[in-house]
Amino acid sequence: MYYLLLIITMFITICSQSYINSMYQKTKRIKSGKGMTGAEVARKILDENGLKKVKVKEINGTLTDHYDPSNKIVNLSSDIYNNTSLASVSVASHECGHAIQDKEGYTFLRFRNSIVPVVNLASRLGYLIIVISIFTSLTNLLWLGIAMEFVILLFQLVTLPVEFNASNRALKQISKLNIVSKKEHSSCRDMLTAAALTYVASVASAIIEIFRLIYMARDRS
To answer: Domain span at residue 44?
Structure first.
């Protein structure tokens, strides 16, 4: 059972990453009819929503795009920032969705941001404690590690509505501002859905991992 759960976790992770990468490559090859780069899309959406002070910045990496609420910056990877593909439109508008959430004080986003310090601590110490418990056979220490994994799971569960809501806002914005055609809108929706499903897969993997650790702890008792 222990190894079966481990294999299932790995399978879910690999499949979700393969799906988002496949959809990204597909929409990356489709150029937007409006010819707007990801940076231009982001700037337009931000300006139209009263967020002219939010900056749009180019960063390194692939699909490393994110919104920084502390510094009010929409960070876009080079491919997304410079290209005019539907992938660029989708990702850029999604990150702007987070900026709009921040402006409106979206409940789930505020809660997620508030627990980040605790989650970071749990992420750093959780598996270290679990590894130590395995080598020392201290079951109580293993349960402490499992508790920290629950903190991480809570963060991932809260992330789900944040990401789905950002994607919905993105789709509304690119339609409202006439950034894409109706046909292109469908492809953007597919890309954003694929991205959101990776978060669902992360939650599923986290739950299975916790069950695996609980099974290990009970097996020791």
So the answer is: 2-220
